[in-house]
């Protein structure tokens, strides 16, 4: 089987602990290079058994043996290095949120289209089969007509003085970091787009970033949605859909890897709860799906259209948080890449 040859831009923890091991587990991918702006990259490459180590991102992008790159850089650097990677002919898997605005994301996809390469936002959670099963149950009508969806994604952030998620200039903030998952899940599970958002939260007085966001959304199909995200609460990563005849809850929605890769779908109806346990390696599935999209020249699982709409909603949440007012989201002309 032909394998996509991967390089990684930066020695970020998520790459070292999650994505690079997933590339090694994937059937259609292999890791051949990693880059950093410091000499520590050599020790990390040796530790992770990566053949090539570069002390600059540019050197890695100039390597003709690399087919695709994974970019886990800070949010404010995504646009620059996605575009530079595209110009070097590399396909790109970029960490979420893909950018700091819908406009930035649009420019990134346009650059990739011009270069003839694929770009996908790294929402690994959606590749876990528990979400496809949840959609099947909803579509079957078992819990009736969906009226409300709720989602929570939080953790208590340690070492705040040095963590880039506390830096507004680098794209810090809980809505950017974990609220983006809830927004994406709500859009995906309800098959609708937000038309109104109302956000409130807790702003860190020293940095200006949102430590906590609580957002109410009205969807285009009339479903109400509510999500909370936080750096100031205990770890949670779930969603729940409430229908006219029952409810469905996924308690390890965004990090099933913290539960041994086992997803759980709980369906409550007529006083009885049914539990379905579904195994899936989210990070491996993400790598395999994107590598297969490259090999077969097909669309990635997370499309440009979906990513742009997610960024549109994130930006609306921040406008509402800043003004304290409800923000109406108007549909713009669709752009397909």
UniProtKB/TrEMBL annotation:
Domain GFO/IDH/MocA-like oxidoreductase as annotated: residue spans: 132-248
UniProt xrefs under InterPro entries: Gfo/Idh/MocA-like_OxRdtase_N (IPR000683), Gfo/Idh/MocA_domain (IPR050984), GFO_IDH_MocA-like_dom (IPR055170), NAD(P)-bd_dom_sf (IPR036291)
Record-annotated Gfo/Idh/MocA-like oxidoreductase N-terminal domain positions: 4-122
Residues annotated as transmembrane: none
Coiled coil (UniProt feature): none
Keywords attached to this entry: Oxidoreductase
UniProt entry tagged with the keyword Oxidoreductase: yes
Family stated for the protein in its record: Belongs to the Gfo/Idh/MocA family.
Protein name per its UniProtKB record: Gfo/Idh/MocA family oxidoreductase
Organism: Planococcus notacanthi
Phylogenetic lineage: Bacteria, Bacillati, Bacillota, Bacilli, Bacillales
